[in-house]
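The following record pairs a protein chain with its ligand, iron/sulfur cluster.
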Amino acid sequence: MNERRMLGSDQELLDEHYEKVIAEESVCISDNLVYGKPETLTSTPMHYCPGCGHGVAHRLIAEVIDEMGIQEKTIGVAPVGCAVFAYNYFDIDMSEAAHGRASAVATGIKRVLPDRYVFSYQGDGDLAAIGTGETIHTCNRGENILIVFINNGIYGMTGGQMAPTSLVGMKTTTSPFGRDTHEMGYPLKITELIAQLPGVYYCSRVAVNTPVHVRKAKKAIYNGFKYQELNKGLSFVEIVTNCPSNWKMTPVESNKWLEENMIPFYPLGDLKVPKKEN
Ligand SMILES: Cc1ncc(C[n+]2csc(CCOP(=O)(O)OP(=O)(O)O)c2C)c(N)n1
Ligand code: SF4
Ligand SMILES: [Mg+2]
C-alpha cells in the first residue's frame, strides 16, 4: 500500500486546480454563465424524470472527463436501476452489469486495462442492497477505480420500494405507513462503513440539490479520477440525490425535502481524505 500514500504536492495540485473554480463566491462569475453540452455526453435525450438528480450527476462526470481530456481512455460501468441506460448518454466505452455487480465488473476491466480510467455508477438499491457484498469487497481490495454512488433513498426504477437507505418514517410502496425500524431495520449508512476499510483511499459524500453542492460534487468526482490516475486506489463518492416521482413531490419540493431530511441524516463532506506527508 505504500506507493499509494499521497505526497503533499499531489494534494496541492488537486486543490490548486479546483480552488480557482469551486469557491462558493464564484458561482456566478462571468466566465461560467454560458454552458454547452459536454463532449462526453451524447445527444440522446435522457429518459430521467424532470428534476431528477441522475441527469446532473451524469453531466458532472462528463464535464470532469472533458476537462481531464480522458474521454478516449475512460470506461464506465452502468447499473441496473433508473441509470440502466447510462451507456446511451456517455460518449465513452461503457459496460452494463447485472444488478449490484458493477464494482466487480469494473474490477475486471481495470485489471485487464490498467491504463484506463474506470468508474462504476450505481444506485442505492444496486450498491447498498443487492450488491453489498461486491461493494464491500471491491473497496476492501482497494481496487484502483472510482465508484459513484447515487443515494436517492429509494428503488426508483421499479416503482418506489424501500431501499436500505430509506429514512426512518419514509413512506415508500413497501413501507406505506413509513419505515418502521422495529419491522424494517435502520437506514444503512454504507458510506460510513466503506470509509473504515483500509483499501479505500478517498471517500466523500456530496449532493446536487443546489449550485454550491453541484460544484463540490464535481470536485469530488474530479478527485476520484485524479487519484486513480495517480494509482492511489479506491475512491468512493456518494451523491445524495432526489427522486421526485417516487417521493411524490415536485422537483423543487424534493430538493427542499432532501435538504431538510436526507442531508441531516447523510451529512455532506469528506469521510476519508489522503494524509499529507511531511
Ligand atoms: C437481481 C435483480 N434483482 C432485482 C431486480 C429488479 N430491480 C431493478 S432496478 C431495482 C431497484 C433500483 O434501485 P436503485 O439501485 O436505488 O436505482 P434507482 O432506480 O433508484 O436509481 C430493482 C430491485 C433486478 N433487475 N435484478
Ligand atoms: S424514478 Fe426517480 S430516480 Fe428514476 S428517473 Fe424518475 S425521479 Fe429519477
Ligand atoms: Mg435509488
